[in-house]
Amino acid sequence: MAWERRSVVELRFDFVSDYKTGIYSIAELCRSYKISRKTGYKWLKRYYEFGREGLEDISRAPHRHPHAVSVEIKSAVLEIKDRYPKCGARKIDWQLRKDYPAWRHYPALSTIGRMLKKEGLTSSRRSRRRTCPSEPSSLTNGLRPNDVWCADFKGHFKTGDGHKCYPLTITDHASRYLLCCRHIDGMNKDAVKRQFAWAFREYGVPLVIRTDNGTPFASNAIGGVSGLSAWWIRLGIRHERIQPGKPQQNGRHERMHRTLKQHTAMPPAMHIASQQKRFNEFMEYYNNSRPHEALGMRTPSQMYAPCFRDLSSKLPDIEYPEGYMVRKVIWNGFVFIGRRPLYISKCLAGAHIGFEAIGKYKSKLWYRDVKLGVFNRKKWKIESVRRNPQSAGVNPCPDDHKPAEVLPMSSVQSVTYV
Known about the structure:
Strand content: 15-25%
Low-confidence stretches: 131-136, 388-418
CATH class of the largest domain: Alpha Beta
CATH architecture of the largest domain: 2-Layer Sandwich
Number of strands: 16
Number of domains: 4
Shape: elongated
Radius of gyration: 36 Å
Strand order of the largest sheet: 5-4-1-6-7
Order of helices and strands: HHHHHHEEEEEHEHEHHHEEEEEEEEHE
Distance between the termini: 110 Å
């Protein structure tokens, strides 16, 4: 038969049981069980106070810890988390230092994180698969405010009454300042243009606007130019388009969209008007109250300043160098070379374009300083050209490291729009 195994707790209970019989003295029992009389009295006392459960080993952890978080700190952390439910440990730490500058010691980020996790106020982040490092992008790196603006439509969603909401968002690339967050019904081009006109009057005209290849920012027309981007180009703004299927090339803006969704659309508001009110409140919070880790825990409003390039009431004239053949695009998108029509694009209706002769039968086709294509007079067609990534968002081949082709503007002749 198997040997009987006795646990320490059972031996202690046997010790107590033997003592309760009254046959043995405490000294005899302690010698028999090979323990000291002090230990024997301790287990007897625990048994009479707590019963058999008192014979179990208790935790040896100290009841007090010199580095334990005080009730005051814990209450302050939970109060900030309740005020800003979407904030994590880093932003709560920043807010603590802002709200309680007289404190001598602040909890570590890991302590705040454990505190939130213990209270059930955080969720585990899904692990991401490691990816290969991407090649350096040729897009403009905006180092100062208003060098580059990023624009996009946040993916539409339905409000409580079933209406689709299409938020147009514009941010400054360098400072992360949210310039615009407004619902545009059906992504209407004219409404988008009015919103950009307001932004230009409010903040000035940027050097570059970066978008994706969707409507109304781009089109399938020559050079990818749309009616909206043609207006930008006319104002002297360079339009950058990211590579299709590469939203990470506009990663700062996409990350803002995630924060926007968390604060305003989970769940959505009941009506478009109340949803727009949420957008306005989010802009105020995002620009002035929410610290940004990439900005050294400063807010975007601390980094942003409007520029001096104002939107003129009259569109500037377009100038082409001498020797260029200049033609006006009529209402249906055609230009006439002699008496023969050539289709350009309805997006450029009313605009003047320049033809730069580069051979007997070929000419480069320009709209202001943007190269649209190459006109082959022999075939009477416009051949598309590989656009530079700084103007079209397409990465060049490994052997293509030439800078962007820019129209020389010396010795120019002026073309005035009417």
